[in-house]
Specification:
GNAT_dom, acyltransferase, about 30% helix, 7-stranded mixed sheet
Length: about 190
């Protein structure tokens, strides 16, 4: 376990969040997503998207948190983004009300691989759960790539379970299967 902490993201973190996202996707998803798709991801565009999410979230219950490693200097090493469920949280042809108003969706939970296994993911998830409970959410959902064993193993080790929903993302004419996990936020 390393020395580290979690805090709300600041606008000036957007570039590092984008860098962590790209580095993580290019390592963790290199066997799941086409190489040319990963190679074409634009860090400047991602930075603008993350800056917008941090500066002007759709609601007060949309959050971006960052994990910071403390050593001789501090490094932003991971992040979590979440918000009330929307159509992106639903399975194909699932009705809009299926997950209910008391559900929150994790849109991203990433720790840069070189900083993995140091407790940053657990700190991000724990801080997120505290905020979700504070916001009155009753359940949380997250989509994971079927081939992403590390994410599935991490979430199931903390009590998350598949809820039976599945979908496949069309990534440049390649279908990439995902499954949805959920957890109760009751204490």
């Amino acid at each position: 376990m390393s020395l580290g902490y979690v805090r709300p993201a600041r606008p000036e973190d957007a570039g590092e969040v984008a860098r962590v996202q790209l580095a993580t996707w290019r390592v963790a998803y290199r066997r799941l997503l086409p190489k040319h798709v990963l190679d074409r991801l634009d860090e400047a565009w991602l930075t603008r998207q993350w800056r917008a999410a941090i500066e002007a979230p759709p609601s007060e219950r949309h959050r971006v948190l960052v994990a910071v490693e403390q050593a001789d200097q501090s490094y932003l090493v991971g992040f979590a983004a979440s918000g009330p469920v929307d159509e992106q949280a639903l399975a194909p042809e699932e009705p809009a009300e299926a997950l209910g108003p008391g559900a929150v969706a994790v849109t991203d939970l990433l720790v840069e691989p070189r900083w993995g296994r140091r407790g940053h993911g657990s700190r991000l998830l724990s801080a997120s759960v505290d905020l979700w409970r504070e916001d009155g959410f009753a359940t949380a959902v997250a989509w994971a790539y079927e081939g992403d064993e590390a994410t599935r193993k991490f979430l199931t080790s903390t009590g998350w379970e598949p809820d039976g929903a599945a979908r496949a993302l069309d990534v440049d004419d390649m279908l990439v299967p995902q499954l949805r996990l959920h957890v109760s936020l009751a204490e």
